[in-house]
């Protein structure tokens, strides 16, 4: 554009000069023409000067415009970049608008759900209260059950201790049972003759042995002093009992229902005293002669209140007049 202006100005200048020259030639012969030509030339020079000024100004403007053109190009590039960014922003804005729309829709749904939950919560207040009461009751019951479990554990430990004691007792009882069996067999063997004469009866029960002596083998009629024959038999029995561990020996005296004869009533007013004296005599013999532990001995008098036969006959009364030695395990 600058070159075009310069060319135009140059053409105009050249045309002016040519025109001046033509005028100068035509009016050379006349002064007026010369003056006119000089005047025209002067004017043309002024115009040229003016044109030069304008050209310089135009050049400056052209330079300024060139700079502005560069700035404009840069501005266009910047604008294009901005437009690209604007397009990206618009795209993201559309995406955000879509997200906002989705979020608004979700928010509305959540609000509706929240309202529904509030309504449901309001309607379930009574249920919640009931559940809380039940929960409190359950917790109380759980604490009770925990206490019961602790008690049961304590009882289990106690039962385990008792079971241990029972097992020990069972083991001890089995040992005592074996001892009683051996004692029974020993008594049978050593008192075989007396048993054959029906003077002694030996019975073996589950956990005890019973020896029954007719009174005539140990005592004279109406008396409580052991006869020599009775001492021999009691010695056999005592020696066997010495080897039995953990035993309890109970001596029980029995009589018939015949009242005590007058000559003996000073000593035995009734059959109670006689039956008790006879059992005590056996106890004293075992303690003094056989040296059995008196803590394991017991004397009992039953008079005629535990008969094993009828007191209406002499034979039955003879059976009822007896002394029993009951051997059983000692209770712990």
Layout of SSEs?
Elements: H1 2-26, H2 31-123, H3 125-190, H4 192-196, E1 200-204, E2 209-214, H5 215-218, H6 228-241, E3 247-254, H7 271-288, E4 297-301, H8 314-320, E5 322-329
Helix pairs in contact: 1-2, 3-6
Short description:
The protein has helices at 2-26, 31-123, 125-190, 192-196, 215-218, 228-241, 271-288, 314-320, and strands at 200-204, 209-214, 247-254, 297-301, 322-329. The protein has 332 residues and is an alpha+beta fold.
Count of distinct structural domains: 2
Category from helices, strands and their pairing: alpha+beta
Strand content: 5-15%
* CATH top level assignment of the largest domain: Alpha Beta
* Uncertain residue ranges: none
**The CATH homologous superfamily of the largest domain:** OmpA-like domain
Please identify, by name, the CATH architecture of the largest domain: 2-Layer Sandwich
Calculate the mean pLDDT score and round it.
Answer: 83
**How many beta-strand runs?**
5
SSE pattern, N- to C-terminal: HHHHEEHHEHEHE
CATH topology of the largest domain, by name, is 60s Ribosomal Protein L30, Chain: A
- In DSSP terms (H or I, runs of 4 or more residues), the helix count works out at 8
Instruction: Report Rg.
Output: 74 Å
Q: Strand count, sense and closure of the main sheet?
A: 5 strands, mixed
Our measurement of the CA-to-CA distance between the termini, rounded to an integer number of angstroms, reads 139 Å
- Give the fraction of residues assigned to helices: 55-70%
What general outline do the C-alpha atoms trace? rod-shaped
Which strand order spans the largest sheet, edge to edge or round the barrel? 1-2-5-3-4
């Amino acid at each position: 554009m600058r070159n075009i202006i310069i060319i135009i100005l140059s053409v105009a200048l050249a045309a002016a000069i040519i025109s001046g020259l033509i005028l100068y030639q035509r009016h050379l012969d006349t002064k007026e023409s010369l003056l006119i030509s000089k005047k025209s030339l002067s004017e043309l020079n002024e115009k040229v000067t003016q044109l030069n000024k304008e050209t310089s100004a135009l050049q400056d403007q052209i330079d300024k415009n060139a700079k502005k053109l560069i700035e404009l190009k840069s501005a266009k590039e910047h604008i294009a970049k901005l437009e690209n960014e604007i397009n990206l922003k618009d795209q993201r804005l559309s995406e955000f608008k879509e997200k906002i729309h989705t979020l608004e829709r979700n928010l509305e749904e959540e609000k509706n759900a929240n309202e529904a939950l509030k309504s449901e919560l309001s309607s379930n207040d009574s249920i919640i209260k009931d559940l809380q009461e039940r929960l409190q009751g359950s917790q109380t019951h759980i604490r009770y059950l925990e206490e019961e479990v602790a008690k049961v554990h304590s009882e289990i430990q106690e039962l385990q201790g008792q079971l241990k004691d029972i097992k020990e007792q069972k083991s001890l009882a089995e040992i005592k049972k074996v001892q009683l069996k051996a004692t029974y067999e020993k008594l049978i063997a050593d008192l075989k003759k007396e048993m054959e004469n029906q003077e002694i009866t030996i019975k073996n029960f589950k956990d005890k042995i019973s020896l029954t002596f007719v009174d005539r083998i140990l005592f004279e009629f109406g008396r409580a002093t052991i006869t020599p024959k009775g001492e021999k038999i009691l010695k056999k029995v005592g020696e066997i009992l010495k080897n039995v561990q953990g035993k309890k020996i109970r001596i029980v005296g029995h009589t018939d229902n015949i009242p005590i004869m007058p000559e003996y009533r000073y000593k035995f007013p009734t059959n109670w005293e006689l039956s008790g004296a006879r059992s005590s005599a056996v106890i004293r013999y075992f303690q003094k002669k056989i040296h059995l532990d008196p803590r394991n001995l017991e004397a009992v008098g039953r008079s005629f209140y535990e008969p094993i036969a009828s007191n209406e006959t002499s034979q039955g009364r003879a059976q009822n007049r007896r002394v029993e030695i009951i051997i059983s395990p000692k209770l712990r």
